[in-house]
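Quick illustration, no need to memorize.
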Amino acid sequence: MIKQEQREQDRDAKDVLLGDHDGLPVLADRERARGVLLRALGRLKAGRDVSERRKAIARALAQVEDSDRHWMEGLASRLASEGGIEAVPSHLAALAVAWDLVESELAAMIRSVNSQRKDPFVGQAVAGMSAAAPEFSERLAKGNIDSDQVFLRVALAHVFRRDPSSTFSMFVIDGMAKNLHKVLRMSLNDFVKSCLERFDEEPAPLDAWGYVIVLRGLTGKAGYFIREPGPDEMEELHRLRGKLEGLMGPLSDAAFFNHIAAGAFSGHLMKGNPGGFAALMSGLMAAMNDRFVVLYAREEEGPDGGVHTDILSIPASNAEEARRIGIALPPLRMHDSFRSLKEFMAQQADLEAREKS
C-alpha cells in the first residue's frame, strides 16, 4: 500500500513545475483592491501625487477581467505600462492586494516553492538574481545571507511567473524583496515565516506519532507530522540497511541513519513526495528511538558532493511541543553551526517547561 501511494505521489509531482501555476482566486473586491493599491503606492511614494496614483489604479483595474486568475501579475504589469508607475512599486502594490484579499491562497503558493528544491527554476532564479543584483551576488558568495532572503526571491519569481533569465525581471524581484517591509509593514523574515509556517496553526493529526523539522541549506524550513511506522516501514528500513552494507561494508548506526535521512530528503522530499519522505523517516526515527528530530540537509558540490545530513533530537514530550520549538527556530544562515541549533532548542525546551510549571 505504501509503495502504491508513493508511485501515485511521484507521478503527481511530475506535474508540479515552478515558474508557472494556475493562479489565485479571481479579483472579487475591486473597491477594496483600489484602497490597498492607493495605500501601497503612497507608502512607496510612487507616482507624482495622489491624483496620478488614482488614475493609474483606475486604468490598471479596468483591464483586469473578472475571470482572470493571474490578475496579480497582470495588475503589476498594467500599473507600470499604463499607469506610469515604476516596476518595483507596481509589483509590490499588486502583491499587497493579493495578501489582503487572498492571503491564504498566496501563502500556499509561496509555500509550494519550499517543496520543489530540485526544480531547475530554483537554480535559474538564483543565477538570474546574482547577475541582476550585484549586492545579492556578493552576499551569496560570502555566505552573508540567510535562507529567507534567498527563498523569497525565488518564490516571488515563481508567483509572478517571471523569466529567471531576464535581467530586468530579476532586478525587479530583488527590489521587491528589499522594499517589501515598506508595503506589508512586516520584515521579510516575518513574511516568509507567515507563509511557510501557517500550516502549523492547524491541529496536529490524531495519529501524529512523531515530528520532523527539515532545515535546508538555503531554502528555509518545514515541519512534518509522522505516523507510527508499521511492519512495512520497518521491513523497508531493514532491506535498505542490507543493501547499503552490501555495497559499502558494515556501517555504524549513525552512518546508516544519515544515509537513510539523505535518501529520504533527496529521493522523496525534494522530488515533491512528502508521503514517501514521511514513511521512510518513520522507520528511521523508530530505529533511532527518537520521535522528534531536526534533519539538517545540505547539498554540496564537487567530487565528494551530495546530500550531507545531521540529525538532532528535539527535546520535546509530544508532537505539538516539537512543532512549537520548530516554529521558534531562527532563520538559517550558511555559516550557522549545528551546535547553535542544539543550544537554541534547549533554551526553548526550558521555556516550555517553565510555562507548564
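Residues 30-196 form one domain.
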